[in-house]
């Protein structure tokens, strides 16, 4: 099995649940802290491609930057949304779990089963 990479916020309850599940299953993984590591628009675009969704589909509407940037209006292009996600990583739904060319948004944590079986 290819190593998993999790894009997380360490204080996020769902992220901690995902990490705990992987630890229980003794599955090797690495983490990328969304708030410590600046992701490029190209990497975010690639994550969306692996998830099979557009950038708007992984927007986190509970983040203050969502309302501050009027992201609910639908008037932003994908490139604009990606740029805002780089600037405000709290806008990214998490955890995103990647294994090779596949990825899942592990909300709820049971979606991890799509990757780890």
Describe this structure in words.
It is a single chain. The protein is an alpha+beta fold. It has a single domain (4-116), classed as Glutaredoxin, CATH 3.40.30.10. 36% of the residues lie in helices and 15% in strands. It is built from 5 helices and 4 strands. It has a 4-stranded mixed beta sheet with strand order 2-1-3-4. The longest helix has 12 residues, at 13-24. The N and C termini lie close together (11 Å). The model has no long low-confidence stretch (mean pLDDT 95).
Enumerate the spans where pLDDT stays under 50 for 5 or more consecutive residues: none
Radius of gyration: 14 Å
Quickly give the CATH architecture: 3-Layer(aba) Sandwich
Mind describing the biggest β-sheet?
A: 4 strands, mixed
Biggest sheet, spatial arrangement of strands: 2-1-3-4
Q: What share of the residues lie within helices?
A: 25-40%
Alpha carbon gap, first and last residue: 11 Å
CATH class designation: Alpha Beta
């Amino acid at each position: 099995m290819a190593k998993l990479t999790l894009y997380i916020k360490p204080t996020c309850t769902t992220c901690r649940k995902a990490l705990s599940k992987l630890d229980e299953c003794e599955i090797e993984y690495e983490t990328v802290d969304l708030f410590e590591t600046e992701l490029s628009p190209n990497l975010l675009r690639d994550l969306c491609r692996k998830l099979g969704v557009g950038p708007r589909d992984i927007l986190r509407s509970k983040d203050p930057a969502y309302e501050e940037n009027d992201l609910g209006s639908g008037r932003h292009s994908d490139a604009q949304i990606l740029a805002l996600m780089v600037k405000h990583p709290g806008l990214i739904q998490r955890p995103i779990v990647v294994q090779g060319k596949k990825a899942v948004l592990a909300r709820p944590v049971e979606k991890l089963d799509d990757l780890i079986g």
